[in-house]
Amino acid sequence: MRVNYNIVTMTNWLPDLANFPGPRYRAIADALAADISSNRLLVGARLPTHRDLAYHLKVTVGTVTRAYAEAERRGLIGGEVGRGTYVKAGTPASAMDQWPQLPPPPGDIPAVVDLSLCTPSSAGVAEALATMFASMSNPADFRGLLEYPPHGGLPAHRAAGAEWLSRHQLSVGPENVLVTSGAQNGMAISISTVARPGDLILTERLTYFGMKALTSTLGLRLEGVAMDEDGLLPDAFEAACRQSAPRALYTVPTLHNPTTAVMPLERRLRIIEIARQYDVTIIEDDVFGFLMPDAPPPIQTLAPDITLHISSMSKSIAPGLRIGYLVAPSRLMPRLEGTMRALNYAVPPLMSELASRWIEDGSADRFADAQRRECRIRHAMAQDILRDCPVIAVPSVGQHLWLKLPEPWRREDFVSETRQRGIMLTGADVFMVGRGAAPHAVRVGISMPQRRDDVRHGLEVIAELLMNPVGASLSVV
């Protein structure tokens, strides 16, 4: 069927590639998307021939051919043999780089500002998703995605995962990568493979509550190990290994959840040494690692033979994508794939395909860059608003803050008082492992609200309560 374009003669388009890094073909496609977004190119505009554009850009004709194919895959252009290539439509490139500042709700102050979770912005994701699906107009694009896939994922999807991880300090082959339904699924697969009901799993004294729920469901024992501002304490870890014979250590060494601690290299090496001595498998949760490119190397790169490395696109792109990657030593791969079959058979190939295409065309990198930029802006905002408060705020580049409350505040009173004022926080008790006393601290998720003004309002309420602790003695009877 012939597509009717509102044709505008346009044969001299020449993109400026200076602001578009990466392979030349991708830079040309990105520049095309940007010029469509800025209305420099209108729907129906005819693009230069492959040969003409290659001549003016000083690239090969093959590069332009690949660039046009990439742009067509994104749904930006189309055309017919003998009539040329035309602008069709597309997602503005800038949409993926902009954090949406939504109109305020009725009234000057939002009813509720939820700072209780670590959820990234979805800026531009829906638009990119629509464009991606629009570009998959050929039934052949879907046929291979409708069959039962291999338990660890289709080879192309595992290769894309390996490519994505290579951009975040890991160098692994596709044969050591499994596609998972997010980090929680990766945790479940890892724990279920290396431990059996009744076994002991070690973790930091404060840990991600998803691990607490998982070990409880699987009938495993969970023991918290002492930590400081740099994360897990090696001496405490060694003492626990010597006394309790644990099967695995679950740790978040980079931007720890909830404390934001970043484990130094020397400590990582010591933890590895102890794990080897006592035959303990390390399960490394690195979902926040992409936010800190200059962090010490992941434990997996230092001890690949004893480490299961978990990552996810839930923090860098969108939680609903539910795509993660589990890196494991070769000796464990058959067992891990068997566990995957028992738990969820395999990850839906359609979502894996989507993630893979975003990795290949650079969209995933742009989403991650947008998250990093916005986190820096929001941390600067927090440091400014809380600068005069008698509170310890661990500075970082992550999606949350860890606030140690000053006297006379108690965590339950502070969470209750902020809730009454429409601000939702998470108290330290949610993350505490064991029956010991949790510190008087709260986690503040600064990435979840879509509007910066809402984050600012929430932080201002927190600052006001810290400076004027009117409800700090609510628990005193």
Automatic annotation (TrEMBL):
Transmembrane segments: none
Keywords: DNA-binding, Pyridoxal phosphate, Transcription, Transcription regulation
A Pfam family assignment: Aminotran_1_2
GO molecular function annotations of the record: DNA binding; DNA-binding transcription factor activity; pyridoxal phosphate binding
Protein name according to UniProt: GntR family transcriptional regulator
Superkingdom of source: Bacteria
Alphabetical list of CDD domains matching this protein: AAT_like
Source organism phylogeny: Bacteria, Pseudomonadati, Pseudomonadota, Alphaproteobacteria, Rhodospirillales
PANTHER family hit by this protein: HTH-TYPE TRANSCRIPTIONAL REGULATORY PROTEIN GABR (PTHR46577)
SUPFAM superfamilies: PLP-dependent transferases, Winged helix' DNA-binding domain
Species of provenance: Skermanella aerolata
